[in-house]
Amino acid sequence: MFEAEADGLRELRSAKAIRVPAVLACGVTDDESFIEIEHLELRPPTAATETRLGEQLAELHRHTASRYGWHRDNTIGLTAQENAWSSDWVEFFREQRLGFQLELAAAQGYARELATPGAQLSARLPELFESYEPAASLLHGDLWAGNWGSVDGEPVIFDPAVYYGDRESDIAMTMLFGGFGKPFYAAYQSSWPMAGGYERRLRLYQLYHVLNHLNLFGRSYLGRALGLMRELL
Question: Could you give the CA distance from residue 181 to residue 187 in angstroms, rounded to a whole number?
């Protein structure tokens, strides 16, 4: 897990779009694994910092690959995240994001509630992408408020779940738990406007993270997952 995190930090850092802490070491001792990264003194972000984050995130997303996925699997929180390369975004998301989380949820006893709407949504995914084919953008992958900060007025991002996919996925995660203000979204939209129909797709991408929280933290997230499924269907 730490090796994948280190690779993700290096991938983001190589784009030279947003500040990313340097990886100093990653390894295994006799009784534990570790990752050591650059120490940064974080400060509360200002509106100006949020504006720069929006602009720089758009720049990060302009770094693209020819396919969706990544050269290795990693984790989203403590959950495995598969990233096998695919030329089809709908197939990638159906199998390696939505389907993977639904299978985990079924194994934990949520099949009765989730199996039918999950199958219906999986079958109808192409409807959300009828006139939209996303670029395979370099993504942070887990961009919630706890995974970015401000250093000397400049944004910095860390703790990623990197892969190449729809840039809307990162935006969806910023909206899931709050912590990002109007300057951030205005700057992102000004730098690279979202495509038509994005509001509905944002709920799809949020569903992935809500299902992951259901699998990690339990039934308190079930209602939110079912609510997103009903909206999407």
Answer: 10
SS3 per residue for 168-199: HHHHHHHHHCCCCCHHHHHHHHHHCCCCCCHH
Active site amino acids: 142
Res 40: pLDDT:
96
Which residue ranges make up each domain of the chain?
41-232
pLDDT digits (tens, 9 = 90+) for 174-227: 999 988 999 999 999 999 999 999 999 999 999 999 999 999 999 999 999 999
> Looking at the domain 41-232, which fold is it?
Aminoglycoside 3'-phosphotransferase; Chain: A, domain 2 (3.90.1200)
Residue 103 · residue 133 · CB < 8 Å? no
* pLDDT for the residue numbered 223: 97
Identify the CA nearest to 135 among candidates 40, 64, 53: 64
pTM for the predicted model, two decimal places: 0.97
Count of CA atoms in the C-beta half-sphere (13 A) of 19: 17
Asked if residue 60 lies in contact with residue 162, where contact means CB atoms within 8 angstroms, the answer is no
